[in-house]
Every structure is written in structure tokens, then in C-alpha cells.
Design a protein that fits this description.
By secondary structure, the chain is of the alpha+beta class. Among the domains are: 284 residues, no CATH class; 155 residues, 2-Layer Sandwich (Heat Shock Protein 90). It is built from 17 helices and seven strands. The radius of gyration is 70 Å and the shape is rod-shaped. Bound molecules: adenosine-5'-diphosphate (ADP).
Amino acid sequence: MNSFFRKLPLSIKLMLIGLIPLLFLIYLSAQLYSEKKQTVKLIGDYILHVHEEGNISNLIYELEKERKVSYEYALRKDNYSKVIFQRPHTDKAMQLLEKSKDLAIVNFPRYTFLDSLSSVRNSLDNSPFYRADAIMQFYTNAIYRLNTLNPVSSMSSTYLEPVYKDLLSQKTLFEMITFLSIIRTNIYNVLYTGKYKVETLLGTLGVFNIFKSYEKEFLLKGSPSSINLYNTEKDTSSLKPVLAYIDKLFATFNFDSTYDAKDWWEVSSQGVHILRKQQLNLWQNVETGIDKIYQQQIKSKNKTLAFLIAAIIFVITFVIYTITVISEMLSELKIAAQKISVGGTGLKFQNMPKDVMGSLTDSILEIDKNNIELAYAANAIGAGNFNVPVNPRSNEDLLGNSIQKMKEDLHKLTMEKDKIQQETLELMDRKDDFLSIASHELKTPVTSLKAYTQLLQMEAKANTNERNELMLSKMDLQVDKLTALISDLLDTSKMQNGKLIYNKQFFPLNHLVEEIVEEIRIHASKHKIIIENNTPVQLYGDKERIGQVLSNILSNAVKYCKDCEKIIVNLKQVGKGAICSVQDFGDGINETQKDKIFERFYRVTGNDLHTYPGLGIGLFISKEIIERHDGKIWFESEVGKGTTFYFSIPVAETQINNPE
Ligand code: ADP
């Protein structure tokens, strides 16, 4: 399970983290909403109950009226029209109540004996001996039973608190009206018949006590306004004589002549009417109040629903936003890590938090910073700056410690190299000094050697000593070679010190080519030196030195191509430059030697090194001379096929008369 969770992609993990509280929130929301819905339903039901109570009260009212007229008709058989007039009203009230779906009311006719109403009416209409007290009993029972059906419980509920007292007041008043009706009807019966006075009062005493206890309850628990109104009406309105008469009757058990039946019915009707009016007002108040609460609860339910939907949307949005932001930050870190892994630097992060991710960012930046510092240090060390600080981060810092070690080793090596270089330079200087002195010192005796050789040569010629003359002429040639060597050595040391002087003048290069070729031909009888092309070109330069270059490459061609039949010399003008070339058909020069043969004292090493005499300075001097004339010297060669040396020099800009 653990490994499965670890392998899940981060976005899925984050989704799960967001999903759990979200599910919890949805569950809580559903609970809260269903609670609200239930409350709304309860109040809705309650409103229905209150409506039903109105219908019950209405039916009781109509039944009371029907009781009175039916009783009177049963006793005296007059005013039948009143009975006929009243019955449809009663029926209408009953039908209204029969429609109720309230479980407490369904089938009420059976419970209240009203299912026998039509047979009672029939008996009254058709049987001349049907007893009035049976009529009274039937209706009174029905009214009493109906009263007990009152479906509105006075239960206390937080939601109903604003109407609770009014609800209780109207319910108690309802009871009082019912019991007062029974009392006044019984009194009316006595007054109407003049019979069973004490018995009736004794029989009604229990009802009177119930009425009194309800009155007490009303005065204790009712709403202050309804109590005030009741007290006022009890003292001032037509309720006052009714209640006073009843109190007196049940105190004395003696009927006086204050009321006859008719008067009593009228007076007591007014009294009951006043109470009924108050009860109806209260009932309406309750109905309006509960309706208001109901509307408020519906509003609150809808508000709750809207709030919950908004909260869920907010949570989902926030979760998605959080996942996106975290993914973005992680991807920034990934890119940075990838950049570092391929050696990149210069990382930048924006708005990173101060948590694990922040520490990771700091670590990556630290790596980047260290990499830059180490790279800078390595660069500086490479450039020879050994003062640059290298600060390994710890003993485990492989890179830092290696660079530190490299710095130390390199420093040591560089110091040794500098020392050797210094010694080499000193040696070179000494060697140059030696060469300079040696060639200088050699030049004087060689010059006098030349002079004496020539003197002896002249004497041999005069004495016609041919053998001596031949030997002396060979000696003279060797002295010339020696002079040339010494002169070359002297030139290199002058070049080294920048002391070689160039005597520049205008001259035709083609003439110089002819002169030098002639000179070389004397000593290279075996080779056929061909001037293939000799374009007339004017140069401004040191004629002698340029002649030295040509002589050098031409004598090299002869020297390094012993068995060659021909050597081709070429002079032409290309653009503003004169290009002179000497081509031989010898062994050629290996590619690896290409850059080296122009170096001082460089000679191609090989088995036949001593076959070809030389010091390895001819090409060095030639290159120096050509470059001092803003020219270039180079060669093309193919091993086994031969070599062509070229040099180019800009032609003179000012034209001079060609002596030709
Ligand atoms: P030196 O001829 O005295 O050795 P140079 O400086 O004139 O010195 O020449 C340098 C080297 O270049 C020579 O030792 C030789 O190996 C090579 N070289 C020069 N010219 C030729 C040529 N025409 N063919 C083959 N090798 C040549």
C-alpha cells in the first residue's frame, strides 16, 4: 500500500489530499441541508395543523348553533326553519374537515359520533317523541370529542418561539370556549325547562372546574397582550355578567330571577362571542407568525444551499489552484535541477515559500552559486591566478576539494615551469650571445683566410701551378660556404635582437631571379634549372636580402633533390603581388613537418640527416626577410613527388624606369 501510494503521480496524491476534505464537506453540507429541509417540512406541517384547528373550531361553532336550534325544536316543535337553515352550514364545516389528511383528524366522524349525525337528524325530523335531552347529549358529546382532536400541540420549539405564547393562549382560550359553551348550554337547559336545577349544576360542576383550571392556565402562561385583553374584557365587556353569573351559580347552587332562558342565551352568546373573537384573532396571529417563520426557514434553507454550493465550488477551485501552483513550483525546481545536471548556471526562482520547497530551492541556488564560484575559480586558476579563493563546502565536497587540490598542484607545477622557463630563457640568451660572439669572432679570421686563399690562388696562377690552383679554388669555395654559414648565424642573432638592417631600394625582381639562378647554376652542374616564366616586376625592398631568400630556397631544391634532373623557377604577377616559386621533384616534405621547418635551427630528422649539410636556419631567415617586406612564404609538397616553395611580395607602387 505504502509503495503503491509512493508511486502515484504527485498530482494524484495532491488530488486525494484535496478530495478527502471535499467529501467531508459535501457530507456535512448534505446533513445540514437535510436538517434545514426537515425543519421547513415540520413548520409546513405545523401550518397545516393550525389550519385544521381553524376548521375544527369552525365545526364546533356550527355544531353549537345546530345543537341549540335542534334542542329548541325537540322541546317545543317550533322554529323548524332555523334547524333547516343551520344544517348546511354544519355540513359544509364537516366536509372541510373531512378533506384533512392529518392522521389525528382522519375518520374523525366515527370518533366524535358525528357519523350518526344524519340518523339523529332523521329521528328529530320524523319521530315526534325524540327526546330533547338526547339531542343535547349527542351534540355536546360530539363537541367535546371534537375539542380533544385539536391537532396543534403546544410543544415548545426554538423555531416557534416567537409565536409560542400566542399559540398557547389561543389553545387555552379554545378549551375555555368549549367548556364555557357546555356550561352555558346546561344553564340554558335548566332555565328553559325549569327542571333538574341542582342536579344539572352538580353534573356541570366538573366542567366548571375544568373551565376554571384552563382560565388559570391562560392567565399564567398566555401572552401578556392576550391576558391584558382578557382581563379588560372580563371587567368591561359582555363577558363580565356571564362569568359573574356562572361564578355565583356554582357558589350558591341557586338560580335567581336575573335571566330567563332567552336572556341568558343572548347574554352568554355575546360573552362566548367575545372569547371566540379573541381566540380567532390569536389564531390568525399564530397563523401569520408561523407563516412568516416558514418563509424565513425556506429562505434560510435556500441560503444554506447556495452557501454550500458556493463553499464546495470554492474548495474545488482552491484545491485545483493549489495543485496547479504546487505543480508549477515543482516543475520550476525540476527544470532548475535538470539545468544544473547538464552544467547550466544562472538559476532564478520566483516567490518560493519558506518551507521544504523553499529549502530545496535554497539548496539548488546554493549549488548554482557554488558552481559559479568554482567555475570562476577554475577559470582564474587556468589563467594563472592562484590567489583566487576556493572554498570547499565540506570535507565531502568532491568538486571543491578537487579544484583546491588542482590549484595547489598547478601552482606548484607553474612555479616549476616558470623556473625552467626562466632558466631556458637565460640559456637561450646565453646561446644567442654565444652565437653572436662566435659568428663575429669567426668572421674576422675567415675574412683573412679568404684574402690569403685568393692571394695564394693568384700566385699559383702566376706560377702556372695548376694543381695548387685547383686545390686553392676548392679551398676558396669552402671558405665561401663557411662565410655564408657564419653570415647566416650572424643574421639570426641580429634578427633575434631586432638589429638586422634592411637597405630598401627599387629594383626589378626578374633581374634578381636571373642573377641568383646563374649563381646557383655554377655550383649545381648536375641540375637543369629552368626559368619557366620571368615576368618583369618592380619591387621596393632590400635586394640583397630578397636575393638571399631566393638563393636559399633554390639551393635547398638542389640540396634536397640530388638526383633531380630539373628545377623550375617561376615569377609572375598576381594582382598587386609578385609571386616567385621554385619547384623541385625530390622526396617532398612530410605533412607533420609543415609548420616546423620555418622554425630556427629546425631540420627534418631522419637517417640521412648528415647527408644534407645545414644548420636549419635558411628558411627561418627567409621567412623573417619576406615578412619584413609585408610578404608571405609557403610551400606545397607531396611526399615522393617534390616540393614547390613560394614567396610573394607586394609590387612597388611607384613605377621606375626599367633599365632594360
Ligand atoms: P637546412 O637546409 O640548412 O637544413 P633550412 O632552414 O633551409 O635548413 O631548411 C629546413 C629544413 O627544411 C631542412 O632541413 C629540410 O629538411 C627541409 N627542406 C627545405 N627545403 C626542402 C626541399 N626543397 N625539399 C625537401 N626538404 C626541404
